[in-house]
Design brief:
Chains A, B, C, D, E: Mediates influx of magnesium ions. Chains A, B, C, D, E: One of its GO terms (cellular component) is plasma membrane. Chains A, B, C, D, E: Belongs to the CorA metal ion transporter (MIT) (TC 1.A.35) family. 5 copies of one chain form a homopentamer. By secondary structure, chain A is an alpha+beta fold. The first copy, chain A, has 10 helices and 7 strands. Chain A has a 7-stranded mixed sheet, sandwiched between helices. In chain A, a hairpin with a 4-residue loop joins strand 4 and strand 5. The longest helix of chain A has about 70 residues. Chain A is rod-shaped and about 120 Å long. Chain A starts with a helix and ends with a helix. The N terminus of chain A is likely disordered. At the A-B interface, helix 7, helix 8, helix 9 and helix 10 of A face helix 6 and helix 8 of B.
Chain lengths: ~350, ~350, ~350, ~350, ~350
């Protein structure tokens, strides 16, 4: 249970799901994560070269205009929409892209522009205190650069950063498209963790139900998990289509070799989608099982009541008969009638017992 | 609860869902909103120029035949079908279009004509007293004009009017197709508000169920919400197809730049559709949860009954035994038998208590 | 309730759903409606001319071979299959068409022949005593004639006949294809009436459930409505495909102008189909609600039982104690013990009451 | 009920649903029907000529090599796989065809070969003692011959045989493709009979439920019917696709005229499929209704208990009070207190009665 | 029950469903089956020649480079990923293939490379102690060789090996593509066994429910079976698409003749998929039935309670009346009143009995 507490899913849907009645193209941040400032984390590399620094000034990023190197600029903090707009101007991004970067309710999608690709996805991860985070992330992928926009600090890309820095695997020898793949792969890898956690929770609920160990919160917890799955589903499913299109895209910045890797991503996202649907179904059947358990319990309660009442009500009646004050009740005068009555009662008692036994209620 | 009252959804479906046995092409208003007169609200603008006036005379609108300006004519009040027909003649609209303008049961659709586009949609908004309004709206979009036909006064376009008047955003520099986009965008923005309200209602119901705070009306209210969702769904879903076709349309009056914005609309309408389906599923599972709660409660009632009966029925039987009037009951003469009996009863009482405790009924 | 009786749906499926083991092409009537004779109702018209007469002799119809006029021949009564075959020969219809005309179980369809179109549909209407009729109707549409075959007298075409006779609307100026459209439109208009009636019934059931006013027949009536919807659905849904094909058909007898009107029909049939599916779902959720109501009621019954039993069983036990005949029960001799006991009982009574109040059972 | 017994569906799925771990192409019979010998029934005909004989020797069949006549060879008994293989060699059939002929678990399908078509279907019919038979049947259709392979004697083709013999209808004037159509038509005609029987069973169950006449076997019988529908569905549904392909096939042995008739078959199989799905849904809703009935009954039981207990428990308590043996109970000495008490009890009784009446429990 | 124990399904999902945050292309084994060493089983054959040996050294396998023979190399044990990578280098396999070979969570798929096909499937079989095994298997099929990678020893291919060794059937005369078909056929044959076992289990559960023989574990066992079906479904369903693509593939290593056999495989996998879906539905309806049974039982319990209480509570009340100690109760003095009272009680008893009989509770 300690664990359940640690990883409590944040279920409340963010309020004001769209900045309403805005002029289209307006950059409005509607998420809940607040950064005090917008921070750029820039990594510039090729097979031989590696450089990383952070800055608050977008202009610093622009010095890496050398096409022989890949520049990855990660921007944390979308609530300072002014900064985002300034960045957009530096990188010459379409105003609708800027709107989508800041609109954390935007569903995953891919938009193809002449010089770059624009991809929206959702990061799922557990943060420090075990809360599930659904974080909006946008990727702009050009020939020799990748821009990533996140709601706030904390992400799933540390593995990728390490691989770049320590020259692990192929990443230093490849272009921006491979970096994009590596980032998407890292996002999807974290989906597996979340999906596995759901599966464990379902098993936990099942055990609770079977061990008759459920507390009053079980229905609520199941309901919350159901809702969490719904939200995760909404974050993950559109990515399936996005990756499918990405794989089939014939865009100059996507190298043919990377295509193989993208096919792999599609495989993974399909697998996750299938699992999510399976867990959805399992959670429905969990409620079914729970109902059955309740019914079984009530059955048991009823049996106890019926057995107690059925045995003692007739006996009490018999006792009542001989508690009557009629002047002339012949049995009352007989010497052994009290003991005979006990005998009769004991026989009735055992006949009843046998009857319930045969009915398999005992 | 005050809020629930304020925003009560009007659920009754309008009667006579089609003017039956009419000659096809007959313009018949079947809605419930009544305007005393049909009013034209005309806005004429381009980047430099802005003019607005209202009139009851369609001919007044025709003076803006200057192609360099965009003319937006908004017509309120469809119940005066005679006026509508007159307007139709002025603007040379096809008779079937006029029928669709007046037939408030027409589902959202798009019809492509040589010189103009005809779009039917539904406005969802809360009016003054918090009632959800589903209002039929038709757009006729030509090269330099937009006609909007509404059932009655009150709409969701005030933001657009303000932007035109105050020259906010791009709208004054663009053509009629951008105005069409802005109007559709305003309609869809209001869907988000309604959908959010539904989501809040569902959460309210959930809390009521979990806090055991449900009154007798809960099932009815859930049922009403279910029906409201069904009606909203019917208003919103066909628009998905309409916007999809609009985006792909290769019609001269749609500028290529506007296409990007339309793609955005499609994104939004898909998101709303998905949310509606999610809420639909959640409301089903709400009924499930409610059933579980009822069952749990009945279980509790049964337990109380069973415990009370199981404890006191045997004790009453014992008391009944010694209330019998047999002449010879040896125990009755013994001095301490009354106190011994009390002891026996107290033991029976605690044995029972222990038994129910172990069964976790207490 | 009077109304429910008036409009009782005839639910029993006709027996022998196909004339079995027949030679293919055999004309067999399997419906239940019996006409004593097959009657031809012939209307011949163009913009200037109008003539109408009835006859039992097919040959009478043939005199209108003038191509400048539209001839509508309506045949009532399919049970005289000999007559149908004779008619078929006169009009040179394919034997499989004749089989489909008589086979009232044939689902709606469209068959395209070189010189004519063959359309099968179902008329839904309430006859005099309020019973829902599902009547098989076949249309053969040629260049300058329309043949309609109905099971028996009584149909939904009176509006069309009136329009022809009184020269209302466009019909007298158009060709046979427009007449076909007008007839199909009349059929579909009646679907709206039936669908509306279903919706009213559902609302009636809902009110019954919420007002706790249900009698024993409610479940049966809901079940009957469910079955009626199933049958209506089966009559209506295939027409969607039929009209879709009709709209796209490039057949010489369909004028381009009529295409616009057909698109309108498709709109209507889609709307009806959607409504039927919505009512289907609503009726399922009606059963759900009914179950909830039953459970709530049982809960209430249980509560009354539990309160009564829990209060009086312990009190009866106490009374039983002092009804025992032990020689030495000290309390019995005390002067005020009877009144003290009453005090104790009243306290127990109110403690119980308070307990149930706090549990919100009272 | 007698009827239900007569037509009991054989529900147990045949064991060993595939001859496992066999070399592909091995001819293995896995059905349950045993014929002692494989019998050929040969009919040879054209418009003028008709001949029929039976034989155990495949070679006898080969003498009809005259292309101007149609030869229909019907083979009963698949368990003698040796014979089947011999026949296969005579008719030069592909080994995989032979495997499919003997494998009674093969689902309906159509395979197109250069000189012939291979069609697998399922015959549904009631045999003598009213048991539903699902029999595997394979058709090989060539230019001037049709081979039909059945599991055992007894089929649905007697009507076709009679038509050939007695020259009814078109069959004697047509080719092998029309014979194929006639056989498939006969198979599908029998589906209608089976489907109608299901519909009658469902109605019977409904009546049982509504008349409160259900015995303990009802749930089991419903479950069995559900399973029967599942099996029938599996036999019928794939045929839809088969006939659809057959209709569209451009194979030399299919005459264009026969195409019209095939379209008719497709119509029929769609109609049957739709009915099966409707019955499936109805049977689910039957269980729903049954549950409702049970709940209603339990409600009634509970009410009786509650009324009895609520009325008599307080009365018994009152009687208990005055059965106490306190020395000083003032009421005991009063002369009319016994009668007063009776009055009080009768008042309590009627108050209770009124209370339950108002609650509509009586 | 002994059998149920023997064939217990292993339901727990393997932990760590993907080696997370790995560099893409990394070969990581995530399964649970451990082999101490990776073993190669090599079979080399053509029509005349047959040779078989096992080795731990991949290089041994390479000596069979003669293209006129088919070489089947079966590798057991995926946990030694180092060995797998070495093998991959010998056979020049793409790194992503190696990752998929070792990743036992990879869903079935087919990848087409220039010189070979890569197929992932799942073997389902019962091992020695009756546990269901879901084993990951990968096939690499080249012009004259087939590589099969299994998690551990024990598979479903003994029949194929025997056929090769003993020259049964066509296999020795065919190429590597036919061997691939034979292996896939063997895998699918085992699906039939597993699916049949599920069907038997469902029937067993049904019998338990109908015979009222269910123990407390029944719900849990049904739930486990449900989960097993979900897992099997996930293993089997993607293969449908794989085989569909394989059949349509126009790859040089697939001989046209083998195409016929592949079509057969597709038939089989569709049949299995359909069966799995049917069993899924049946198991849902099993829970329904179980709920009905519980409700019926509770009904019976309630009836017994109601009958006992309703009969004896009024009788006890009557007895209570005459147990009162009023000074003046006239009946007490009458001589035969005790016997009259017995008479009254017996009449009440039988009236009650008759009442319950008429209500069909007895």
């Amino acid at each position: 249970m300690a664990k359940t507490k640690r990883k409590r899913l944040s279920l409340r849907r963010p309020k004001s799901s769209k900045a309403l009645n805005q002029i289209p193209g307006t950059v409005t941040y509607v998420g809940t994560k607040q950064s005090t400032e917008t921070l750029l984390d820039v990594i510039d590399y090729n097979a031989e070269h590696y450089e990383r620094f952070t800055s608050k000034n977008p202009q610093d990023a622009l010095k890496f205009e050398d096409e022989s190197k890949v520049t990855w600029i990660n921007i944390d903090g979308l609530n300072n929409t002014g900064e985002i707009e300034k960045l957009g101007k530096y990188f010459e991004l379409h105003p609708l892209i800027l709107e989508d970067i800041a609109n954390t309710n935007q569903r995953p999608k891919i938009d193809e522009y002449q010089d770059y690709l624009f991809i929206v996805a959702k990061m799922l991860y557990y943060n420090g205190d075990g809360t599930l985070q659904i974080e909006h992330i946008s990727l702009v992928v050009g020939q020799d650069y990748v821009l990533t926009f996140q709601e706030a600090g904390g992400d799933v890309f540390d593995g990728v950063r390490e691989r770049i820095e320590q020259k692990k695997g192929r990443i230093r020898n490849r272009n921006a498209d491979y970096l994009m793949f590596a980032l998407l792969d890292a996002i999807i890898d974290n989906y597996f963790i979340v999906v596995e956690d759901i599966s464990e929770k379902i098993e936990g609920f099942e055990d609770q139900i079977f061990l008759n160990d459920q507390d009053d919160d079980l229905v609520r917890e199941i309901q919350e998990l159901k809702r969490a799955i719904v939200r995760i589903r909404r974050s993950v499913f559109p990515l399936r289509e996005v990756l499918g299109r990405l794989e089939k895209l014939n865009h100059p910045i996507i190298d043919e070799n990377t295509g193989n890797y993208l096919r792999d991503l599609v495989d993974h996202i399909i697998q996750i989608s299938e699992n999510i649907d399976i867990y959805r179904e399992m959670i429905w059947s969990l409620m079914d099982m729970y109902m059955t358990t309740i019914s079984n319990k009530m059955n048991e309660v009823m049996k106890v009541l019926t057995i107690m009442a059925s045995i003692f009500i007739p006996l009490t009646f018999i006792a009542g008969i001989y508690g009557m004050n009629f002047e002339y009740i012949p049995e009352l005068q007989w010497k052994y009638s009290y003991f005979v009555l006990w005998g009769v009662m004991i026989i009735v008692f055992f006949v009843m017992l046998y009857y319930f036994k045969r009915k398999k209620w005992l």
